[in-house]
Amino acid sequence: MHILSTNQFTKSEVDAILLRSGEMEKSLRDPKTATLLSGKIVASIFFEPSTRTRLSFETAAIRLGADIISAENAMGNSSAFKGETIEDTARMLSCYSDAIVMRHPTFGSVEKAASVTKTPIINAGDGANQHPSQGLLDLYTILKEEGRLENLTIGFVGDILNSRTLRSLVPLLILYPNNKFYFVSPKELVLAKEYREYLKKNNVNFEEKNNLEDILPKLDVLYMTRVQKERFLNIAEYEKVKDSFILKINDVKKLKDTAIILHPLPRVNEIDHEIDSDKRAAYFRQAQNGLYVRMSLLLTVFDL
Ligand code: CP
User: Which domain covers residue 247, as residue numbers?
Assistant: First the structure.
């Protein structure tokens, strides 16, 4: 199976991935874990920069006993530079590997790659569309930190328009009852029209805001996002909105004691560094969880 979007999963499939993620966390260094993917080769190809996703997928594969072939900076260092299509690239990788982890800047491109091969492809982020392993690691983090996935109030803040992490996490959280969403952004970065329609069609309980202050005390999860410079065609437009929402220690004082602050990372300046030592700052624990969830996803694509 390919993993292209969080929309593809049923609740029982998501629950199984979370359960297996917990097992991976507990058995990370067990000798048996290190044999689960013995003899398999995982290809990782990234046409966009990455620290967490690429290195944690590669670590996950190694922890499970697989070998890795890797193309980073693939836009310049693979034959895409010479004009090879994403479909032909996928055909080639499927000749050499048993599973492919792929990131690309273009919305829908990983699905195109997956359309030409039966070798499982995991979407590691395609433009502003989807980043399913991020959505699942966010969900795993919320479950670990809050102890539940229902009756939550979640505030996404920042670049709501371009956030593939939002588009990946929301479809997962709506599998569970009574979750409420706030989307907080400057007017230039509000939800895309088609995505607003999707949320309404699916009876998602959400409100759009351009002010953070009022909602802070209501939140169980404050999900900060980076304004994504690489998605802007005009740098002046980016400069205008880049500092719209910067979380300060005084904001954190308004959060519930039990709330958590998430961020997919990398952060630029949208969370003050002095917040890092607050127990509610869960973003580095969130990134760590990515390893266990990606181990679980590799096992899933191999039907193990
Ligand atoms: N969150 C995330 O996708 O980080 P990277 O871009 O570093 O992989």
Answer: 132-287
